[in-house]
Amino acid sequence: MGDLTIDFSGEWYEPEDGSVFRIGREGDLAIDDNPYLHRQFLTIAQENSIWWLTNIGSRISATISDSTGGMQAWVAPGARIPLVFEQTRVIFTAGPTTYEFDVHLLTPAFRHDPLDGSGSGETTIGPVVFTPSQRAVIVALAEPLLRRDGTGYSSLPSSADAAARLGWSQTRFNRKLDNVCDKLDRVGVAGLRGGPGKLAVNRRARLVEHAVTSQLVTAADLGLLEQMSEETDG
Questions:
Q1: How many whole angstroms separate alpha carbon 162 and alpha carbon 104?
Q2: Rounded CA gap, 183 and 137, in Å?
Q3: Full DSSP string of the chain
Q4: b/e burial code for range 185-211 (CB count within 10 A of at least 16 → b)
C-alpha cells in the first residue's frame, strides 16, 4: 500500500506519485452520476513531498476535518489545502446529496492529540451555546449522515422533512434554523449566509457538513429527535 489511500463506500483507491488523482462525476474516483456534481471537482496530487487537495470546481465547496473533529477547513472553488493528518474526512454536497470519503496517510506530517474530553457536556463552539431545540434542528438535518456508519453518500432532508421529523411547523423550524446559522456565522463559520441579511440557499448543506466534521453533533444526539417530537405531541 502506498503513502496515501482513499476510502469511499468501502472501495479503496491509491493515487500514484507524480500523477493527479481526479474526483467528481467522472475521473479516477467517479463518485456518482449526479448532474449537480462537477464532472471533475477535486484533485489530489503530491508536490514537494506534500499531498494537496485542490478544489477545481466552480460552485461546490468541500469541508474537511481530522478524525477527531478538532481541526476543520472549508475548501472553496479554486482553493487547495495540504493533507497532513493520518485520517482526513472530506464532505461535500451536490444538489440533495451529501458525499463523504476518507483520506489516509501512512506517514502523516501532523498528529493531532485530542482533548481529554472533560467538560460540562454542553454543546459549544467557541462562545456559542445551543439550546436543546436548536441542537435538534442540526440533528434533524444531519440525521442521514449520523445514522450511516462510514463513508459514502446520503440524502440531505428538506426543511419541510426535517420539520416534520420533529413534529414542528416549517415556520418554527425555519426560525430555529435562522438562529443556529446566525450564531455560527457570528463566530466565523463560513458559508451560512449569502450576504448581509440574506441567508445562503445552501446553508443546510454547509450546516450539516460543519456539524458532522466538527462533531458538533454525533449519533449520541439522535435521541433529541424523539424527545422533541414527544414534547410536541404532549
A1: 33
A2: 13
A3: --SEEEEETTEEE-PPTTSEEEEESSSSEE----TTS-SS-EEEEEETTEEEEEE--SS--EEEEETTSSSEEEE-TT-EEE--SSEEEEEEEETTEEEEEEEEESS-S--PPPP---S----EETTEE--HHHHHHHHHHHHHHHHS-SSEEEEPPPHHHHHHHHT--HHHHHHHHHHHHHHHHHTT-TTS-SBTTB--TTHHHHHHHHHHHTTSS-GGGTHHHHHHHHHHH-
A4: beeebebbbeeeeebbebbbbbbbbbb
Residue 74: C-alpha distances to residues 92, 177, 206 (Å): 10, 20, 9
Instruction: Give CA–CA dist 92/61, Å, rounded.
Output: 6
Decide if 125 contacts 91 (C-beta within 8 A): no
Banded pLDDT at 194 (limits 50, 70, 90): low
Q: Is residue 140 pLDDT above 90, yes or no?
A: yes
Residue appearing with cell numbers 414527544: 230
pTM attached to this predicted model: 0.85
Choose the weakest-confidence range: 77-81, 119-123, 126-130, 131-135: 119-123
